[in-house]
Amino acid sequence: MAEPVAPCIAPRPARSVTHGVVRVDDYAWLRAGNWREVLRDPATLAPDIRAALEAENAYCAATLAPLEPLRGALLGEMRGRIKEDEAAPPAPDGPFAYYVRHRVGGQHPIFCRKSGSGTGEAVMLDADALSRGKPFFQIGGAAHSPDHARLAWSSDEAGSEYFTIRVRDLATGADLDDRVERAEGHVVWTADASSFYYVALDDNHRPYRVLRHRVGTDQTCDECVFEENDPRWFMSVERTRSRRFAVVALHDHDSAEAHLLDLDDPNARPRLVRARAPGLRYDVEHHGERLIIRTNADGAEDFKLVEAPLAAPDRWRDLAPYCAGRMIVDVAVFADRIVRLERVDALPRIVIGDLSGGEDHVIAFDEEAYALGFERMLEFDTQTLRFSYSSMTRPREIWDYDMRTRARALLQRQEIPSGHDPARYVSRRLFATAPDGARVPVSLIHLAEMPLDGLSPTLLYGYGAYGHSIPAAFSSSRLSLVDRGFVYAIAHVRGGTDMGWRWYEDGKLANKPNTFGDFIAVARHLVAEGLTSEGRIVAQGGSAGGMLMGAVANLAPELFAGIVADVPFVDVVTTMLDEELPLTPPEWLEWGDPIRDEAAFRRMLAYSPYDNVGAKAYPPILALAGLTDPRVTYWEPAKWIAKLRATMTGGGPALLRVNMEAGHAGASGRFDRLEEVALQYAFAIACAEGRFTSPR
Asked: Among the options 222, 302, 571, 629, which is catalytic?
């Protein structure tokens, strides 16, 4: 059989000059001039661009066709580890308890409730039924009204993250005539259930207004209660646990601001908590006549808790003072408890406190690496805290914890129908040393019987941006790699907050190269520890982690057997120069502003994966994209792969797979998504086994 022939994406040089630097982009033409329209209607994509993407898909499919038996086996294993009819533990809320479940074979969630007695399930929303006949379907949010009579729900049918909000009468099961288009997707109901608040998106897919929709009226009648004209700010609307306020929460990558809307007042106007200021971050909860605020004010780098009188919300007083080395990640406020989720030395713990901010007791675990988080809780006046726990070897457990008696009740342990024995595996926490001496945490899992002979293939995952930490949580899918002798490792590189806020600051703006150096240092440390060897490591990352993949491919291609880059942000300079793109102005505080800051431009140019593709051998690369992705546009990976293939002198292949019916998160159905994971893992296994040779 003839070898697949790679498509030749014709260069159409486009010249630009920025700060005196001339750049020639051979593949700029792959950017759709009507990208806003494409987000809403993929059929409007220009024929020449569509032909190029379809040629890439055909080549990718032909190249990976020999892996189909392996991909099918992986998919079967992954599905075998899923309890297909799993239901989440019901969350009590007055006369009902609300939960989400799936049906056997179902792709999408079913939103249900039961009466307080625990009997008589009522299906509120069946996303399986709603998705029928649609190539893409995703629920954005589903919020029942305070009187339990209605459900506001939202959906996206293109993958573009433009959601449409509808209102369902829970007595009849019928949707009302209300239809709110181009929304962010989540709502907060007023106390009398007559209205709800939502965030509207503008033509550039940016959140810019909070509107109040009165049930039974047309969207054109919706009242704007807050507007943000600075495109650098993100916006959301959230409800305090007390249900007294909706919080209009704004933030960029440096600062935050919050406004309160009284949910008891159907005509409420927003009330500012504290005005934005450079470097000031805070978020707000409510208790009685005061606000409970998590903030970094006054040098509290890793956050502290303060309180403020409701009558004077900008008068802050310490409640849980700053403690160096402890990062307060989240806060849950109840009628007589304040609960903190914290991270110390990259490990999470839960602290139960009293209303004065004092520490009562701590919930922690003794594994080397694990994940811990709050679960869905709907009631304010309760003694029950619900949390989840898992580790890389131990499936997710959901616990109810009595904060008064300290008694724990296991509600649910993730069931693995095909079987799982944690004793077969080892989970470890290591620290690698970065070039500047920083200690970089690594979480990993491998078979207990695996010999430390340096021969084990390894999948090394990294992200490192926006302050997001990567939890050492359980994944049933990755067992398909581990059971085949892989080490699965997570590099907690700088750019996240795994080691506190400074860890984030040391991986952004001028410090961005630390992220790349950390990842390479982790790979080399795994080799030094005898866990794997050079050329046996497959690197994986997505979105901003895809930038990391592109950077390390340029910096140390010899280390890697292959690279999986999921919706990779690789054309950093071009994107950050394009003010029309949804995320460009907000991202300047993360990467730098190359338009107005020449130093930032030159820094980005020095590491941008697309701009630094060189005439060298590259490992096999699989890039994945979504046509309607508003976050990382499809043309970034498309341009990158085309340039790699035209420039590289050996190695490869360089493959691109574009989901023509999805966006940033890939396929919307849970089993369709598993097919994508199985493809990535089949590619990783093939890379580790050396099945690929020179570009075809």
From this structure: 629
Which superfamily does CATH assign the domain made up of 288-415 to?
Prolyl oligopeptidase, N-terminal domain (2.130.10.120)
Q: What is the pLDDT of residues 62-101, one digit of tens each?
A: 999 999 999 999 999 999 999 999 999 999 999 999 999 9
- 453 catalytic per annotation: no
Domain 48-79+425-688 in this protein, CATH class: alpha beta
For residue 266, count other CB atoms closer than 10 A to its CB.
14
Length of the chain in residues, anyone?
A: 696
Is 251 an active-site residue?
A: no
Q: Whole-angstrom Cα distance, residue 472 to residue 488? A: 11
Please say if the pLDDT value at position 695 is more than 60: no
The 3-state DSSP composition of the chain as helix, strand, coil percent (nearest 5) reads 25, 35, 40
**Catalytic residue chosen out of the listed positions 543, 566, 611, 668:** 543
Answer for the pair 152, 185: CB distance below 8 angstroms, yes or no: no
What secondary structure does DSSP assign to 143-204, as a single string? EE-TTSSEEEEEEESSSS--EEEEEEETTT--EEEEEEEEEEEEEEE-TTSSEEEEEEE-TT
Best CA proximity match to 490, nearest among 534, 434, 446? 446
For residue 297, the one-letter residue type is A
Which CATH code for domain 134-280? 2.130.10.120
Intrachain domains 48-79+425-688 and 288-415 with the same fold: no
* 195-219 confidence digits (pLDDT tens): 999 999 998 999 999 999 999 999 9
632-659 tens-digit pLDDT: 999 999 999 999 999 999 999 999 999 9
- pTM, rounded to two decimals: 0.96
* Distance of alpha carbon 317 from alpha carbon 319, whole angstroms: 6
| 566 catalytically annotated | no
Domain spans, the chain: 48-79+425-688, 134-280, 288-415
Residue appearing with tokens 């908590």: 273
Q: Which of 155, 178, 664, 668 is catalytic?
A: 664
